[in-house]
């Protein structure tokens, strides 16, 4: 355990004291704490209300408790007011809404015709923001929600009269843009488009939103408006770039956070390896992050600390709360009712009640999924427990930001799950505390997404040359040519027209990857539970698969691939399932290549991935494998982007300096282990989930003629992840090596080189061989010349 005093002068005492209590009774040599960091208290920095803000607006904001704006709020408001697109990227509870309320309400107050649009990824968040604006009680603003729940009668009123409309991307896509002429008044006067929590628009979903925002802007411009974008984001790397990619316009970034923050003690915690249980291929298993979280929560409750625990799944949140209650029942039964789980889907009133109970201390511990990350006003807590890396540093800091009392300091505990990325972070505090947050990756140029959006855009308004420029130039022209060939668009003198009667919007699933979705239906009730992307259907909803939907468990009875339906029944078996899959990859086009003089080649390009799900494993929550069952499913192909490296076999077998010294029989296991760990670590450099990407490794690949490791995007056309991996290849592989070395298992486990989604049953895997391969690769980093 190491400890660095970043600023001991400020109140870290409260957090330290809590950590001591949680660790009480643990012998130091068995301490799960790998690192403790003290984060300094940050005082508030204020600005003055701008001259241009109407007096009654300032009076209303003051009456609500904002005496003066913080500097970032003021800076963002000034930019937006002067007509510049702006993205404000600051921490949790930094009052980002004031940054857009100030310019938007000023405009609506001064110009009685002006309108504004607010877009949020979730309905709950939109509802909160509407309440906040309505609560100011300014005359003539007429804020209104327009989403799937808005009744028909109210919709007419919103279109005719509302001046600030609160909506979400799905509603804009299905409800507003296809019938924009009914919104002529609104679009003609549209002065601002607010895009809240814009860091959540990443990967394929982010690419969809970027294309949707281009369509939205085009329609507004058609009516003569030139709306200014105001984007709000969690702390992310390169926010201006994110804003630019999302909106297609230059965005100024405001990142200097003027809000105050209490001092915090942050502990990185690695659960111990269990002695009595073994997992796949006899690998050791760690105590689960959920069980550790329960224990920490109950200790905090006994210390009278108010705490929030973030858990990956709803079931996990329920189990964590139950576990904490169980241990409290033995030692402090009067506190059992002070622990609860947040199940999501609550009404605003219920959420307010929960916030109130937690603030007052009536409720001391709440276990939740990241649902609480958006739109719930809980901050200033004594402690936050983060069970498993939430996928991005931005989310980690957002969750950690819920803790922090002015004056006394608070505790944040990050509990590592058995995953190579979590292992890496627990052992490399620099990657948590000294690293800038990752870039949010999306790719609106992906032709698989661009094409259907261009079809929608053409149905909204005929496409002209200028529109094609806005949608990406050359790739847009190619897409329009394809759509015209297919007879979906018709070229006329002044542009391309949509030919069918029905607009194409319904066939575009914003939260999907572009292909035909598989519907998951409960047989008994006929209830549609959800949809699954074509790339994932075979692996997620094959017969026998355990399918989780909002915390409820189902088992798949039948998968009808022709109809695109999976029939399921409610059942909660003890085990979970994971598919077994055979995969091949072929290089279609190498776009970038770098070679070293010793025979390492690193590449970026287009590939075709062919795969077939051949069976599945049933596994207990402890990691223990029950059995493996066969499946008969057809082969499928995916055209996407990949990053790959290949090396001269001589480099791997040579025992001379610079060589890996591997026996040729070990090469497949070494490459496979290096591939798994690399997939686990890529999310450190790109905002993807390990489930968004896949990999293939082989001791002899027909296209390269060499031992090769591929990491590919998991969606048609890619979402920018492989590109990011190519750009950050060496830092990525260095982190991969460190994660493997840091794990104290002997021959590989889920915390380092085993993968929960391995199609080959995690065989063969050679942990030491992977380190040798990565050492060879990293030795070449100084010798990489662009070619
Ligand atoms: Zn391990
Ligand atoms: Zn594998």
Q: What coarse outline follows from CA principal-axis ratios? A: globular
The end-to-end distance, rounded to whole angstroms, is: 45 Å
Structural class: alpha/beta
Q: How many beta-strand segments?
A: 31
Radius of gyration: 27 Å
Query: Strand sequence of the main sheet, in spatial order?
Result: 1-2-10-17-16-13-15-14
Bound molecules: zinc ion
Largest sheet: 8 strands, mixed
Low-confidence stretches: 1-12
The share of residues in extended strands comes to 15-25%
Task: Give the tally of structural domains.
Answer: 5
Quaternary state of the chains: single chain
Let me know the average pLDDT. 89
Instruction: Give the helix proportion (percent range).
Output: 25-40%
Description of the molecule:
With about 775 residues, this protein is α/β, with parallel strands linked by helices. The protein has 5 domains: about 15-40 and about 260-435, 3-Layer(aba) Sandwich (Rossmann fold), CATH 3.40.50; about 55-255, Rossmann fold (3-Layer(aba) Sandwich), CATH 3.40.50.300; about 445-500; about 520-575, no CATH class; about 580-785, no CATH class. The protein contains 25 helices and 31 strands. It has an 8-stranded mixed β-sheet with strand order 1-2-10-17-16-13-15-14, with helices on both faces. A hairpin with a 5-residue loop joins strand 20 and strand 21. The longest helix has 20 residues, at about 205-220. The chain is globular. Residues about 1-10 have low confidence and may be disordered. The protein binds zinc ion (2 copies).
């Amino acid at each position: 355990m190491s400890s660095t005093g970043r600023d001991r002068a400020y109140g870290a005492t409260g957090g330290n004291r809590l950590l001591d209590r949680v660790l009480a009774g643990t012998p130091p040599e068995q301490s799960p704490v790998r690192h403790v960091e003290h984060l300094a208290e940050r005082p508030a920095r204020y600005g003055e209300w701008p001259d241009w803000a109407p007096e009654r607006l300032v009076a209303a904001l003051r009456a609500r408790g904002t005496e003066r704006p913080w500097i970032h709020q003021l800076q963002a408001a000034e930019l937006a007011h002067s007509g510049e697109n702006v993205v404000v990227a600051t921490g949790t509870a930094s009052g980002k809404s004031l940054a857009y309320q100030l310019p938007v309400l000023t405009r609506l107050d001064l110009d009685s015709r002006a309108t504004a649009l607010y877009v949020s990824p979730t309905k709950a968040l939109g509802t909160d923001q509407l309440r906040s604006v309505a609560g100011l009680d300014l005359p003539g603003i007429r804020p209104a929600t327009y989403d799937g729940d808005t009744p028909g009668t109210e919709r007419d009123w919103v279109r005719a009269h509302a001046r600030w409309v609160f909506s979400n991307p799905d509603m804009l896509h299905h409800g507003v843009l296809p019938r924009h002429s009914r919104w002529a008044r609104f679009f003609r006067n549209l002065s601002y488009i607010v895009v809240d929590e814009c860091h959540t628009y990443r990967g394929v979903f982010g690419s969809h939103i970027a294309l949707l925002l281009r369509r939205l802007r085009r329609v507004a411009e058609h009516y003569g408006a030139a709306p200014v974008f105001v984007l709000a984001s969690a702390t992310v790397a390169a926010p201006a770039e994110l804003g630019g990619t999302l909106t297609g316009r230059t965005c100024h970034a405001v990142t200097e956070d003027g809000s105050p923050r209490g001092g915090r003690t942050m502990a990185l915690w690695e659960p111990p390896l269990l002695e009595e249980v073994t997992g796949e291929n006899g690998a050791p298993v760690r105590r689960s992050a959920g069980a550790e979280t329960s224990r920490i929560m109950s200790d905090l409750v006994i210390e009278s600390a108010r705490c929030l625990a973030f858990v990956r799944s709803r079931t996990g949140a329920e189990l964590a709360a139950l576990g904490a209650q169980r241990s409290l029942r033995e030692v402090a039964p009067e506190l059992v009712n002070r622990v609860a789980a947040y199940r999501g889907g609550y009404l605003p009133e219920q959420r307010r009640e929960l916030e109130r109970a937690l603030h007052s201390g009536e409720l001391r511990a709440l276990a939740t999924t990241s649902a609480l990350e958006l739109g719930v006003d809980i901050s200033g807590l004594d402690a936050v427990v983060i069970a498993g890396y939430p996928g991005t540093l931005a989310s980690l800091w957002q969750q950690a930001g819920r803790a922090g009392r002015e004056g006394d300091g608070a505790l944040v505990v990050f509990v590592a799950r058995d995953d190579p990325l979590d292992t890496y972070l627990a052992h490399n505090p620099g990657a948590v505390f000294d690293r800038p947050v990752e870039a949010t990756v999306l790719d609106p140029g992906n032709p698989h997404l661009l094409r259907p959006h261009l079809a929608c855009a053409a149905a909204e308004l005929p496409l002209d040359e200028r529109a094609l420029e806005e949608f990406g130039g050359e790739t847009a022209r190619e897409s329009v040519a394809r759509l015209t060939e297919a007879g979906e668009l018709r070229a006329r003198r002044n542009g391309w027209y949509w030919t069918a009667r029905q607009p194409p919007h319904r066939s575009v699933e914003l939260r999907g990857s572009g292909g035909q979705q598989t519907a998951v239906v409960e047989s008994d009730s006929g209830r549609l539970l959800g949809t699954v992307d074509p790339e994932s259907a075979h692996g997620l909803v094959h017969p026998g698969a355990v399918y989780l939907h909002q915390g409820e468990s189902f088992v798949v009875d039948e998968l009808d691939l022709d109809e695109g339906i999976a029939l399921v029944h409610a059942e909660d078996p003890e085990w979970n399932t994971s598919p077994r899959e055979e995969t091949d990859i072929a290089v279609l086009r190498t776009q970038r290549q770098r070679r070293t003089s010793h025979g390492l080649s690193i590449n970026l390009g287009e590939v075709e991935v062919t795969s077939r799900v051949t069976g599945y494993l049933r596994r207990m929550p402890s990691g223990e494998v029950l059995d493996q069952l066969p499946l008969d499913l057809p082969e499928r192909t995916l055209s996407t982007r990949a990053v790959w490296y290949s090396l001269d076999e001589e480099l791997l077998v040579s025992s001379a300096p610079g060589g890996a010294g591997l026996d040729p029989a070990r090469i497949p296991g070494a490459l496979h282990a290096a591939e798994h760990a690399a997939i686990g670590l890529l999310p450190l450099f790109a905002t993807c989930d390990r489930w968004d990407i896949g990999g293939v490794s082989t001791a002899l690949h027909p296209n390269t003629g060499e031992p090769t490791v591929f990491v590919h995007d998991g969606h048609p056309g890619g979402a920018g992840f492989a590109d990011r991996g190519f750009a950050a290849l060496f830092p990525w592989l260095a982190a991969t090596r460190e994660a493997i070395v840091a794990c104290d298992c002997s021959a590989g486990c889920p915390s380092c080189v085993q993968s929960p989604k391995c199609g080959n049953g995690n065989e063969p895997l050679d942990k030491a061989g992977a380190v040798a391969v990565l050492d060879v690769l990293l030795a070449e980093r100084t010798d990489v010349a662009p070619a």
